[in-house]
Amino acid sequence: MQKVIISVKDLHKKYGTFHAVKGISFDVMEGEIFGLLGPNGAGKSTTLEIIETLRDKTSGEVMVNGLNLDVSPNEIKKIIGVQLQTSGYYPNLNLTELITLFAGLYNQQVDPLALLDMVNLRDKQKSKFKEMSGGQKQRFSIATTLINKPSIIFLDEPTTGLDPQARRNLWDLIQNIRAQGTTVIITTHYMDEAEVLCDRVAIIDNGNIIALNSPDQLIDELVATGFERPKEVKKANLEDVFIHLTGHELKN
Ligand code: ADP
Ligand code: MG
């Protein structure tokens, strides 16, 4: 049987008088890719940052791998990987130096090249962070989440702003990370991405969870209400055309 690795119960967050998260509850199972979907301002990042111990909650209970957030935040920090804001990187250090720096902060021994191999950046080991493309920066920042060998990683819109090849490349990377047993929580605005990647998704709107299920079940539930797409759907879309013409390979 699968085990619950994150349990959120009746979580509230107020910023002053503004109620950003209004009593949400959900469980994340060990080894799954769990998606938080929702429009801008829905409360996704707030929810993630509370679980990541980076933001205070107003009320509610959060358990991470049996650890209570209120009691053991430092223990939780040790078993999670969080994507840092890329603006926080030292722009003049090269990738190997950055990994060594972060590993030192985490008090961890890591092999920088093995980590760079995992995200396909070995040939960039001597490049500075600022010299990389958007997709490379995202791959690198995902690599940094793995430095402390976490059980769970949190990815907040990791593919926003990337081209279709880089996006697909990141999907492969995220699936590889999960295949090694790591639980992944991800936010995204791309529904095709959630459909491909996520075992289950929670849809958040205005601080409330309005649906929670596998993408497949959610689609079936909608179809069961009699919903039909307004027009005949073609067997391909423009993104298929783009990928067909320009290939799957990363261009950088
Ligand atoms: P999402 O990640 O889903 O786009 P956020 O969690 O970032 O949403 O924000 C949820 C709501 O809370 C938004 O209306 C946002 O403006 C507000 N908010 C986020 N951070 C703060 C803050 N530090 N102070 C005040 N309001 C905030
Ligand atoms: Mg956000």
Topology record:
Blueprint: E1 4-15, E2 18-29, E3 33-37, H1 44-51, E4 59-64, E5 67-68, H2 73-79, E6 80-82, H3 95-106, H4 112-118, H5 134-145, E7 152-156, H6 164-179, E8 183-188, H7 191-197, E9 200-205, E10 208-213, H8 215-224, H9 238-246
Helix pairs in contact: 5-6
The chain binds adenosine-5'-diphosphate (ADP) and magnesium ion (MG).
Residues 44-45, 156 line the site of magnesium ion.
User: Considering DSSP H and I runs of 4 or more, what fraction of the residues is helical?
Assistant: 25-40%
Rounded average pLDDT: 92
> Structural class, from helix and strand content?
alpha/beta
Report the major sheet.
6 strands, mixed
Q: Please state how the strands of the largest beta sheet are arranged side by side.
A: 6-7-8-3-9-10
* String of helices and strands: EEEHEEHEHHHEHEHEEHH
Q: Number of DSSP strands?
A: 10
Unreliably modeled segments: none
- Summed up, the helix count is 9
List the keywords:
252 residues, alpha/beta, six-stranded mixed beta sheet, four-stranded antiparallel beta sheet, 9 helices, 25% strand, globular, binds adenosine-5'-diphosphate, binds magnesium ion
